[in-house]
Amino acid sequence: MDGTFDHVMIRVEDLEESLDWYQTHLNYEEKDRWEADTFTNVYLGPEDMHEDGATLELTYNHGDHTYEIGDAWGHIAVRVPEDALQESYDQLMEEGVDDYRDPESCDNRYAFVKDPDGHET
User: Fold this and answer.
1) Residue 29: is it exposed, middle or buried by C-beta count within 10 angstroms (0-12/13-18/19+)?
2) Which domain holds residue 91?
């Protein structure tokens, strides 16, 4: 099989809050949207995304749903320029994003924050 990585899907409890978080803090934009009777899928990615670039799919199931993040789930990885890690992290902290692990605790190679649903990013 010769396949291309297309997207990662996460379920969110509040679509508008999650959209605002990814658009505000990661500068992601809406690439596509699918409105169905019982759910809404929104596909996000950076503005300058490669034509075949993978997207982040936010799935909102209509109604009142609560989700738990299982222990098999890891994280969403977003790459920033190597020399911009601390600056990017500091900006997120100034914007009030929930901290998970700062760059220093990760040997200054990466850092983690949490989105509104608790997904490590």
Assistant:
1) middle
2) 7-114
Q: Tell me: the pLDDT tens digits for 1-43?
A: 677 889 999 999 999 999 999 999 999 999 999 999 999 999 9
User: What six digits make up the tokens of 41?
Assistant: 């899928």
Determine the residue type at 77: A
Tens of pLDDT, residues 75-101: 998 888 889 999 999 999 999 999 999
What type of residue sits at position 62?
Answer: H
Widest distance between CA atoms in the chain: 46
**Rounded to two decimals, what is the model's pTM?**
0.86
Residue 103 CA to residue 85 CA, distance in Å, equals: 7
Neighbours of 97 (CB within 10 A): 19
Query: CB of 70 within 8 A of CB of 34?
Result: no
To 5 degrees, how large is the angle CA 74–CA 81–CA 44?
55
Amino acid at 111: A
Q: For position 84, which CATH number holds?
A: 3.10.180.10
The reply to whether 81 falls in a domain is yes
